[in-house]
Amino acid sequence: MDRSEARAILASMTTSVSLLRHMRTIELVMEAYAKKYGEDENEWAVAGLLHDADYEAFPEEHPGIIVKKLNEMGEAKIAHAISAHYTKWNVPYDTLLDKALLACDELTGFIVACCQVRPDGISTLAPKSVIKKLKDKAFAAKVERDEVYKGAELLGVDLTAHIAFIIDVLRHNKEELGI
Q1: What is the CA radius of gyration of the chain?
Q2: What whole-number percentage of the chain has pLDDT above 70?
Q3: What does the alpha-carbon distance between residue 165 and residue 115 come to, in Å, rounded to a whole number?
Q4: Which of 27, 28, 77, 117 has the fewest CB atoms within 10 Å, measured from its CB?
Q5: Domain range 3-85+96-177, CATH architecture
């Protein structure tokens, strides 16, 4: 599946500006990780772009609708990664793609939240600031910290290095993302 097909699917299910931005941030981070790991950049980017595609239109069925659609389109690997992007769904993590999507989703959203409370946004954000905010349970309270820690563990990356990687990707796209 190419990204124009993925964007069309996304547009058919999602109109929320904040949710679209979230999925775009995950798309960018996943593409960068694919490049780092020598994986298929398009495939990883599409998984990031579509991971919450059905959330707005079908919150009670998420991620079942997008997973079913992708499976019907022959995109089983992407569908599986999306079905596994939350540990409480108890889906096995079979591939690096599965682990990377889990590791990037909550943490990238959290980093964006950190940017939104800083006068200079992402420009001077450092990993130590993100780690400090992770310890503050009142900040971005809906972000599940256990998902952040479990994601880094499953991906096999040091949390500080993982945060730094994501910050770098987002910083390179700060104008587009408005952070």
Answers
A1: 15
A2: 100
A3: 15
A4: 117
A5: Orthogonal Bundle (1.10)
The two structure tokens encoding residue 170: 């987002």
* DSSP symbols for the chain: --HHHHHHHHHHH---HHHHHHHHHHHHHHHHHHHHHT--HHHHHHHHHHTTTTTTT-TTTTTHHHHHHHHHTT-HHHHHHHHTSSGGG-----SHHHHHHHHHHHHHHHHHHHHHTSTTTTTT--HHHHHHHHH-TTTTTTS-HHHHHHHHHHHT--HHHHHHHHHHHHHTTHHHHT-
Tally the C-alpha atoms within 13 A of residue 48's C-alpha that lie toward its C-beta.
Answer: 30
**Per-residue pLDDT tens for 63-94?**
999 999 999 999 999 999 999 999 999 999 99
Cα distance between residue 157 and residue 172, in whole Å: 21
